Amino acid sequence: MPYKLYYWDGIPGRGEFVRLALEEAGADYVDVAREPKGTSAMLKLMEDAAGATIPFAPPFLMDGELLISHVANILFYLGPKLGLAPDEEGLRFVANGLQLTITDFVAEIHDTHHPIGVSLYYEEQKPESLRRSADFLSERLPKFLGYFERVLNQNPMGRGHAVGGRPSYVDLSLFQVIEGLRYSFPRAMDSYEARIPALIALHDAVASRPRIRKYLTSDRRLSFNESCVFRHYPELDRQS
Amino acid sequence: MPYKLYYWDGIPGRGEFVRLALEEAGADYVDVAREPKGTSAMLKLMEDAAGATIPFAPPFLMDGELLISHVANILFYLGPKLGLAPDEEGLRFVANGLQLTITDFVAEIHDTHHPIGVSLYYEEQKPESLRRSADFLSERLPKFLGYFERVLNQNPMGRGHAVGGRPSYVDLSLFQVIEGLRYSFPRAMDSYEARIPALIALHDAVASRPRIRKYLTSDRRLSFNESCVFRHYPELDRQS
């Protein structure tokens, strides 16, 4: 039975971190909300007054009867099944810790254009977004990217992977973060990338993996746009 | 060998979600940063240029040589060992999904007083905090608390627990969220609590568990204060 992934149609967003793992593994899955009537099926599950396990928000995954929510949780569950987690149990928790740092980073990237509230439009919180983005680019972007660069450089199994000696879902997620940041903050990234050579090498290695390369040119890969976590508002970008 | 918990001294903060689980289980642990020279030991681990696994931020846990970071990850790891996770493997991922929703909720609570940047003082982002808190109290607080109330009411094993039929670390964390919200937003909670009877009943049941009751009156339990995630700024509070 195929995995069923539920996520908002039309944006890569947080669902993309799960898609990349499924695609790299060549797993059998359905991207439910992109099917006819898929979005209403997703909302029905979320609002189900009899559901034993209800998600707070997409993305969530169904594997048979089991409903699993949150990106890092889905990847922790899928990783070993897809061959994209370390074999050693302890390192699986290390991978999950890294993925949760990516989760926090993505939330902060989101809040550069939504510092006041998700129920408001960007245009309703633009002065605050300008201020938050300036802080993000000067303080947070270097802190997070510098951390992941250190993680790669200090991996005892080599700087080619975030954890262990072979590709994991964490590597795929780091690829996606770099992709998203290049879309959102091209000027900042242009001046910052020289400082994170290991991360950029990892990004390029992921992009050239056969299944990922094929996926990236397929119509399953959605483009970034201004409804996504990663948005390009030129006024929020600057050299870092 | 005792577990070693690393978290900033002087605040309950995010470390408290881990402490509650360790205390409920009567586990042998050291709260490292509260020991003499503990904070410098913690910083040394974080800055270790040779560390194979490095945390982005506290809290983190050491179990022997294994370093595990992020609250939800630590609890996912400890839960089964402490008898505070469901027996069924699938339900452990459900528990983790709930804990990650608590993580997101706590991050949003934090951002009510830090909507622009963590490197700035509250006083440097007060107008933005007023606006973000108003949105939080009208939109986000009801959404999160309403969700957890639904989770309790729809638990097939009964509304006394968030997941499964006996206490888990998720129940302990929900207790702490209610404690923190009562400290931070007493007016908003005073008017809102009537709408979440199952959550309040869970809070009270956790508070009266023998080990928790003893812990709450010990000097190991730190008071909320304005260096914590949960802060009381009366100007940010209002009836919800």
TrEMBL record, chains A, B:
InterPro entries: Glutathione-S-Trfase_C-like, Glutathione-S-Trfase_C_sf, Glutathione_S-Trfase_N, GST_C, GST_superfamily, Thioredoxin-like_sf. Residues 92-236 form the GST C-terminal domain. PROSITE patterns: GST_CTER, GST_NTER. Signal peptide: none annotated. Residues 1-86 form the GST N-terminal domain. CDD domains: GST_C_Sigma_like, GST_N_Sigma_like. It comes from the Bacteria. This is Glutathione S-transferase. It comes from Sinorhizobium numidicum.
